[in-house]
Amino acid sequence: DVKVTQSSRYLVKRTGEKVFLECVQDMDHENMFWYRQDPGLGLRLIYFSYDVKMKEKGDIPEGYSVSREKKERFSLILESASTNQTSMYLCASSFGSSYGYTFGSGTRLTVV
Amino acid sequence: KQEVTQIPAALSVPEGENLVLNCSFTDSAIYNLQWFRQDPGKGLTSLLLIQSSQREQTSGRLNASLDKSSGRSTLYIAASQPGDSATYLCAVSYYQLIWGAGTKLIIKP
């Protein structure tokens, strides 16, 4: 069964810490995405990548960066975590716009 | 600008009923439409993907239809069960995925 794996289900970090969220897919998908989901705001796109070492800003990139050194791995980095980054983070991958998206199980991040 | 609307926002029905969830979109120039299920605190599970050239897709008790010209999709759930309780999200593939706000479904035993 094809999979998108997010390394942590739950994380608690302190304000100011550098946080890494990891996502790995085993489907050889070119495209990978990071979303955050908040009550009342729905899913919002943070960053996406169409290929190795490529990255594009989504709708809310401020305070985040990403890394894609290998095709199967897409990392989201919170350079200096803040309490307003407490959220559910969802990673997804796809072959492209004409294909479906597969999501990981999510990481619930709490910044205290 | 593409906008996606899901109606109703919440729905509570007795077990065993057939039900329909609605999704509408404003621009018919889509690649496809995908229905997802989300359980509380969990990730998204893809239920059905309908390409823009297709009219419907079926998986078990689920049937999704697509009418591009009217900008509508429906997700039909037959013989609902308590395990169907979840939030159902539709998303259209446009330039990126554009999301509806979801329908929270509760199936009462």
Brief summary of the model shown:
Chain A has 112 residues and is an all-beta fold.
Notes on the protein architecture:
The complex is a heterodimer of chains A (112) and B (109). Chain A is 0% helix and 54% strand. Chain A is mostly beta strands and 112 residues long. In chain A, the strands form two sheets. In chain A, strands 2, 4, 5, 6, 9, 10 and 11 form a seven-stranded mixed sheet that branches. In chain A, strands 1-3-8-7 form a four-stranded antiparallel sheet, with no helix packed on it. In chain A, 34% of the residues are buried. In chain B, strands 2, 4, 5, 9, 10 and 11 form a six-stranded mixed sheet that branches. A five-stranded antiparallel sheet of chain B has the order 1-3-8-7-6, with no helix packed on it. Chain B has no helices and eleven strands. Chain B is mostly beta strands and 109 residues long. Chain B has strands at 4-7, 10-14, 19-25, 32-38, 44-51, 56-59, 62-67, 72-77, 86-93, 97-99, 103-108. The interface between A and B is medium-sized, with 21 and 22 residues.
Name a few traits of the molecule.
heterodimer; A: 112 residues; mainly beta; seven-stranded mixed β-sheet; four-stranded antiparallel β-sheet; 11 strands; 0% helix; 54% strand; B: 109 residues; six-stranded mixed β-sheet; five-stranded antiparallel β-sheet; 59% strand; globular
Share of helical residues of chain A? under 10%
Bin the strand percentage of chain B: over 45%
> How many distinct helices of chain B?
0
Low-pLDDT sequence parts of chain A: none
Mean of residue pLDDT values of chain A = 95
Shape of chain A: globular
Q: How would you classify the helix and strand content of chain B by structural class?
A: mainly beta
Count of distinct strands of chain A: 11
From N to C, what is the helix and strand string of chain A?
Answer: EEEEEEEEEEE
Specify the number of helices of chain A. 0
| SS elements, strand count of chain B | 11
Describe the main β-sheet of chain A briefly.
7 strands, mixed
